[in-house]
Amino acid sequence: MNNSKLIVANWKMNPLISEGIKLLESIKEDIENFNLPSKIVICPPALITMQALSIFSDTSVSVGSQDCHYEEIGAFTGDISFKMFEEIGCEYAIIGHSERRAYHFEDNELINKKLKSLKNSKIIPILCVGESMDEKSSGKAYDAVMKQIDESGINFMSLSPKIIAYEPIWAIGSGKTPTSDEIMNMHNKIHQKFKSQNKSDDIKVLYGGSVNAKNVAQIFSIPGVDGALIGGASLKKTQFIEILEAS
Ligand code: PGA
Known about the structure:
This protein is of the alpha/beta class. The chain is 39% helix and 16% strand.
């Protein structure tokens, strides 16, 4: 894998449909004007995934899903399967985001099932991990993150590349970020984990949690940071473009 940064925009349940389509079109217009050094993935709300795929079809921007069900089809009211996202051309899927874990009670066992299904698809999973403030305050941040990685089983899967997004739960949407040393240490620990188990080192560790146009250059300069998962700032076109320019 090359050294360019991977920038993933996680739009969550924003914005409303017509605004979302306008934002996609406007981002497309802007990125046409410069040479993108980074790989960009946009994960919009599921209802506008098809529009996103069509808008970016003649660009290097990829489109991803924010989640998926691990079964191909079936009686799972309200869910969208990994196979459906694959069928329309999604190349990435965010899996195990802390908001899925908190509001939809997703645990590592379920996340493992999703990763296993995605392993047999053309979609590359982006596994989210991260500690809570309680875990951080009690000195258990590493243990919490390593447990999520171990129980998701991703380190034993022949995925290439393997993408982990380290997102401290307390940093998401809060405007707070860990110190550069804290980010570096956690990213190095994750990189080491894969190396020490003699697994492929074709791994990217993204940082996520309150990344914005002001802090992105500093975050990207930290050794071991291979990209970013960006929520709020990816919805503000000017900021998002500034982030792309800084990468
Ligand atoms: P944020 O969200 O950039 O708004 O903190 C990041 C995320 O939840 O992936």
